[in-house]
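Q: I'm building a small set of examples for a reading group on sequence design. Run inverse folding on the following structure and report the sequence directly after it, with nothing in between.
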């Protein structure tokens, strides 16, 4: 049976704190949840992969860094990307395949861009996805508040499937590292 990995997508200072992009909605709460999820993953020896967007803070080294409160350890992977989908033009898929990963727990920024696109892309590539409902965030846009965007994605992505693989939305207080998808197959 395949294993589970944690993806921490674009949890970079420039998105979380700003000034050019952030601060994200519910910054302290979201960081607390992601920190707890990372701690739990380490306790369970779940591989952790950080995705870092090359466009964030491209002219500001501090904004480009992964947020210090949830920074990777020496055992974690860090994969850089240019596209919204963390699989596009990166070695993420190969890295996951080499580790026999079949289930991804996803946290990070921004909900409607990289979190959404990577989660959808993962199902097409053969991964089941658990999106942590309180472990992703974004900023307001011209049409919707960040709170509305997050609520919409939590409702809209739950159950989204691509033939054999699908997305479940689960709260961080659930057993998110349990590959619950197998109960439905």
């Amino acid at each position: 049976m395949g294993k589970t990995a944690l993806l921490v997508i674009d949890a970079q200072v420039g998105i979380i704190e700003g000034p050019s992009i952030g601060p994200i909605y519910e910054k302290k709460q979201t960081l607390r949840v992601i920190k707890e999820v990372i701690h739990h993953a380490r306790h369970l020896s779940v591989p952790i992969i950080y995705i870092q967007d090359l466009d964030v803070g491209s002219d500001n080294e501090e904004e480009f860094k992964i947020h210090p409160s949830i920074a990777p350890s020496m055992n974690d992977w860090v994969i850089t990307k240019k596209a919204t989908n963390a699989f596009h033009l990166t070695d993420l898929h190969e890295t996951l395949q080499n580790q026999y990963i079949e289930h991804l727990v996803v946290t990070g920024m921004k909900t409607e861009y990289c979190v959404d696109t990577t989660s959808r892309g993962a199902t097409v590539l053969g991964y089941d996805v658990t999106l942590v409902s309180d472990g992703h965030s974004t900023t307001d846009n011209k049409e919707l508040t960040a709170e509305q965007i997050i609520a919409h994605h939590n409702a809209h992505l739950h159950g989204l499937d691509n033939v054999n693989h699908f997305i479940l939305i689960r709260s961080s207080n659930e057993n998110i590292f349990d590959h619950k998808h197998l109960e439905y197959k």
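The mean pLDDT is 95.
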